[in-house]
């Protein structure tokens, strides 16, 4: 028989309380068909093993960590089948027939969307469980303690006990019955509330949607929690105050919320001071914890972990081990603009233009034709370093390189050799590439690891995906080049991490402004990035709330953050090309015919180009990194998961929009390139999606074998092509055979720190191999797992 009621209990190290609650359910729901869902928020008291043994009929969801009351209940509601959802605290004991009475009341009153039970203290006395919506006045009185109860009665802020059902503003979430139609209409609990206040917000949204909320005193439930409510530790006070401030902001406006936060800080500071003077250290510490600045700390703990830091460090050291390619027009054009701005105070690159063909000609002068964002980002770094580091090192390093046989072996015999000017330019290129491109690129590992750890806990996929992304995709080849592809990928992923934190309620809405800045800066650094940036902007704004005001507020925040980069680019374009809306590509001297085909070389999708950037040996992404094909399975899984569906749509848009855009370009092959370099900004999103598929695929030996094969192929192909020779392949239709393998056979390895130290050919890569060996050994060690993570039967690991 189909369940009428889905009972949902969220537990965190409350096994004994959970046992008492489960034992009481059959009598409390007598005559009502029901199912039970238990969501474990990372308990370490063997709750899961106990449930499997003593309650095999219970549906279990297991999270690797404490996701909070709202998020855990939403997980269960997304999967439950009942017509009603009954949210029940584990520290409740429903009396016989109590919950059945609650269900019957809603069955008889279709206008009621939510109803709460009558809560009792352990001694049988009534407990506050229904109240009016908070106002600034009532919350200020609550902060004063007994003064509020003296003015408004002993039951304040709750309603006095009632003898019969009645309508109220909100009811306690300790025992709350809600119709499925209500959840489908207004959504689940707001996950921005970690604990406390989420039921107030939920009832408020239901009331605004036209539903009524009622209290049913006959549904008597003993609630043990209030016995300890008065002795709250610091974190519980913090969650309580944060929840109330969040609701006041939503219901009463940002000014009221700000005034409340100020009052909380002031009154809690006075309480801390009083407890300190009285020598009550425990109470003083609790008050200090309650007002200690937190803000982004919960978000930061997800992404900035020791393992994530080691991943980022490994990728950073791996990418800067080889030097940026010399005589690369793309890099030189951008670096010329940096040198011109810092050393000559002009946008004109007349003094440096001989080293590049990527230039625009306007009024008889030469300018970089590239999007200016990357060069502008490098200007402050070069200002700080050029006089104290770049110039003094040029002459002595030039003499050293002239005497180095290992370095001379990498030079073009027909070239002009080593000169102080070339070395000065190379030093600037190495430093700026490392600090402005390689370092941000390495941070992508932080975002990938954090999101996958949030999804899978300690599963190895959380470190495998960042490593395969960083070393087994063309990102490895471009992470230390002074071109914008990886710089833009890093900006977009950082903005996405901020956006995810905002949607999860871990970051306040003020963080929309820096997210807008990152998105706009990505767009002025590589113009096609506007496709993904627009998707992330929609992802941020798309969960603004149930009215137009939150949407508008977030949109205005994005606009405020994005305005400075856009004005900077507009100023550059106006000064150089005569209009804020003119781009350098319109004035490219050597590429004018190409850029004038279609719209800036865009002519609509081509099957030849699509094949070329996907599977062809020439530039195919999946020929080089077939591991990324798993990402398409991951996209499908993300779209099926209600908790990651929004992220799935965003990743799908990023991947498909960039594939379509680059398949429409006349210049899809990218000249000298390792793979389809123009696709790089979307690759982290495909790698993230792959992380959602790997655990499912690798459940058996065949799946593990497939993962290993695809991973080794991706690592081998990318590393071989990235390290071969002093330039990337250009026109070879099968670079692996026609360029890469001959370079390796000849010992022609990309210039690197080993060569600078006197090592030749393959031996110059020994330090890099040692670094990789240590890194893989560190990450491949089996992690220590909690008992909850070792249990597999009947347990869903967080989300399917």
Automatic annotation (TrEMBL):
Family matches, as InterPro entries: Glyco_trans_2-like, Nucleotide-diphossugar_trans
Membrane-spanning ranges: 254-273, 302-324, 425-449, 461-481, 488-506, 518-542, 554-574, 621-639, 646-666, 678-697, 704-724, 753-777
Domain Glycosyltransferase 2-like: from-to ranges: 6-114
Organism of provenance: Candidatus Thermoflexus japonica
Keyword ATP-binding among record annotations: no
GO molecular function: decaprenyl-N-acetyl-alpha-D-glucosaminyl-pyrophosphate:dTDP-alpha-L-rhamnose rhamnosyltransferase activity
Record's keyword terms, sorted: Glycosyltransferase, Membrane, Transferase, Transmembrane, Transmembrane helix
E.C. code: 2.4.1.289
Top-level lineage group: Bacteria
Protein's name in the database: N-acetylglucosaminyl-diphospho-decaprenol L-rhamnosyltransferase
Pfam families: Glycos_transf_2
